[in-house]
Amino acid sequence: MNVFLRLGSILFHPLLMPLMGSIIYFNLTPRFIEPELITSQLLAISIVTIAIPLVIYFLLKSLGHVESIYLRNVQERKYPLMIQCILLLLIIKVVFSPYNNPEVYYFFVGILFTALTALIMVFFKLKVSLHQAGLAGILFFTIGLSAHFKINLLMIISVFLFANGWVASSRLHAKAHTYPELGIGFLIGAFPQFILYNVWL
């Protein structure tokens, strides 16, 4: 059981959520997009949201600013979240266009608002679950895609609902979060995506 619960935290780590959401979008969109463009955009997302943050994490760890990749201490989250906000802005400005790919563009805008909210909470010494925020963002993005493209994505939505419960149980089992931290994490991940339905849905 311990292995199963830990696996949830690894498979649905917040760093993987932007790439996962983008892959879902490119597999579902009815618009024709050049395969080479899809590959280059996914590669850019992988570098900017996974590779660069990992390099920065090891740098911060060597400097003694963080202890683990799960950022269990609220103060450890300040620099990673600041850097993540800058990297998300880079993706929004360079990788996607609100005219050519409005759905995934605003998905990243929603992620940026989630990261900014989590960062603001750090300054008030409030810790939220970034795992839950990431999963909630993907869940509501997928629901939006289902309505927008008028396709049945009930299976994918069910998987992410299950993943939310799986990861929540994992974080509680590891004593990394409390129930309020998980609930607030879910809300700050879901709310920006829900609000942005008004722009692209």
Give descriptors for this structure.
mainly alpha; 9 helices
Q: Can you offer a commentary on this structure?
A:
Helix 5 runs antiparallel to helix 6 (130-149) and helix 6 (130-149) packs antiparallel against helix 7. The longest helix has 28 residues, at 35-62. The chain has one domain (2-200). Helices cover 75% and strands 0% of the residues. The model has no long low-confidence stretch (mean pLDDT 88). It has 9 helices and no strands. By secondary structure, the protein is mainly alpha-helical.
SSE inventory with pairings:
Layout: H1 2-11, H2 17-28, H3 35-62, H4 78-95, H5 102-123, H6 130-149, H7 154-173, H8 179-195, H9 197-200
Estimate the mean pLDDT confidence.
Answer: 88
| Classification by helices and strands | mainly alpha
The number of helices is 9
- How many separate domains make up the residues? 1
Measured as a percent range, the helix fraction is over 70%
Morphology = globular
**Element-level helix/strand string:** HHHHHHHHH
Percent strand: under 5%
Instruction: Report Rg.
Output: 16 Å
Low-confidence segments? none
Count of beta strands: 0
Largest sheet: none
What is the CA-CA span between the terminal residues?
40 Å
